[in-house]
Amino acid sequence: MTRHVVLVGLMGAGKSAVGRRMSTLLEAPFMDADDAIVEAAGMSIPDIFAGHGEAEFRALERRVIARLLIGTPHFLALGGGAFIDPLTQERVAARGFSVWLRADLDTLVARTGRKKGTRPLLDAGDPRAILADLMERRHPFYAKADMTVDTGDQPLDMLVLDLVRRLVDAGVLA
Questions:
Q1: Less Cβ around it within 10 Å: N or C end of the chain?
Q2: Below-70 pLDDT ranges, the chain
Q3: Within 10 A of 6 (CB to CB), how many other CB atoms are there?
């Protein structure tokens, strides 16, 4: 890998699953920003939101991602809202190659429904309506990524192999 490969997109797009599978396939390190945030805070993301609010969570997220973008290139999955932050976008552009994993609304609703109670933004009402609103607001930011890959109901291994091919073609993977 010549640079960090940074996976961005909405919750449920498959960032962690794709990152872990890429890491295993290519024997390269994988880091999940949300896991690193939980470790740094010593509490779950829902607890951070409940106890400190979204603004404090986003500040912590920004600091953790800056740290994760240092060192040997690896695969990095960002939380759904991380790439909205202009400073995070700048850091990712300077040190990595960003890949937007784009999924349609039905796919996102189905995938996020499997992890009830772990996604604070979806606990505020109807998950479909919230995800539709997030799509409208966040897609213009994700569109700034270096590459876009559509995810859906294709097998994970097929998606990962296609992404590997595309990253090789882009000169990110040797």
A1: C
A2: 115-118, 120
A3: 31
